[in-house]
Amino acid sequence: MTKAKTDTAYYTIKRGDSPLIATAIHSGHNVRHNISNLFALAAEERLREEDPFTDQWAAIADNHIIGHNSRFELDLNRSRDKAIYRKPEDAWGLNVWKDELADAFAEESLAQYDSFYADVKLFLEEIQQRHGCFVVYDLHSYNHKRDGSAGPEADPAQNPEVNIGTGNMNRQKWAPVVDAFMQNLSSYNYHGRQLDVRENIKFEGGHFMRWIHDTFGDNACVISIEFKKFFMDEWTGEPDHAQVQEIKKALAQTTQPVLAALHTVCSVL
């Protein structure tokens, strides 16, 4: 199949031949020009809660979906009625807007939300028709130093380096796929050690995962993958480039075992 690329201001969908899709829907930092001056938050404050560099990891799959705009403008991992952060309690206690966002601006954002989900549905339908079933690496990152760059880290017991969210799937059915992913990621030689990879400790998965499972049923296996921001300074946004690339390598070496497990599961559907 000839690979095609679809771009909008908000996201990129890249099509390939595999039943594996990698997504980075929180990687974006852009904001629309007509609302950029309405934010109470500075760009660096928004960046702190975004998922930078996850778009680089998504490149391990020939199918990928990348978000380009900030989650503070439109959160693609929340239901439509919660996709715009209206109140501080929607956004980690942060006051996002200088004034209440006008409905006209909100509707402009929500039109992009609708386009995204319509395009992703068509995209995944094509993959399902070709392969029968598919697996999604739903890539994210999360903060663990809420008290400042020099402050204490969140308790490692409740904040694994990699949190695998499987809270909205038929876990028994997809056990071979999820277990293959976790075992291979956990066993990877990460700079002479193993990553702390655990399941459903910090997060169980968001709306995007639930929507795919609800839409495609037992034909879809979405693994929500949250990396703690140990690979960067979450307060300045500065990455450790060597670790960003090492994480990408660690994810890449999971793909063949995961695809083999997917083939086994799908062959008995």
CATH class identity: Alpha Beta
The number of helical segments is 7
Q: Based on the coordinates given, report the CATH architecture.
A: 3-Layer(aba) Sandwich
Tell me the number of strands: 8
Task: Quote the CATH topology.
Answer: Aminopeptidase
Largest sheet: spatial strand order:
1-2-4-3-5-8-6-7
Structural class: alpha/beta
Gyration radius over CA: 18 Å
Domain count: the total is: 1
Which term fits the overall shape?
globular
Helix content: 25-40%
Sheet-strand content, in percent, reads 15-25%
Cα distance, first to last residue? 25 Å
The succession of helices and strands, N to C, reads: EEEHHEHEEHEHEHH
Kindly summarize this structure in a few lines.
It contains seven helices and eight strands, in the order E-E-E-H-H-E-H-E-E-H-E-H-E-H-H. It has helices at 43-49, 54-58, 103-131, 175-187, 207-216, 241-252, 255-267, and strands spanning 5-7, 11-14, 20-24, 63-67, 134-142, 162-165, 197-199, 220-228.
What would your notes on this structure say?
There is one protein chain. The protein is of the alpha/beta class. It has one domain (5-267): Aminopeptidase, CATH 3.40.630. The protein has helices spanning 43-49, 54-58, 103-131, 175-187, 207-216, 241-252, 255-267, and strands at residues 5-7, 11-14, 20-24, 63-67, 134-142, 162-165, 197-199, 220-228. It has an 8-stranded mixed beta sheet, sandwiched between helices. Helix 4 (175-187) runs antiparallel to helix 7 (255-267). It starts with a strand and ends with a helix.
Give the SSE map.
Layout: E1 5-7, E2 11-14, E3 20-24, H1 43-49, H2 54-58, E4 63-67, H3 103-131, E5 134-142, E6 162-165, H4 175-187, E7 197-199, H5 207-216, E8 220-228, H6 241-252, H7 255-267
Parallel strand pairs: 3-4, 3-5, 5-8, 6-7
Antiparallel strand pairs: 1-2, 2-4, 6-8
Helix pairs in contact: 4-7
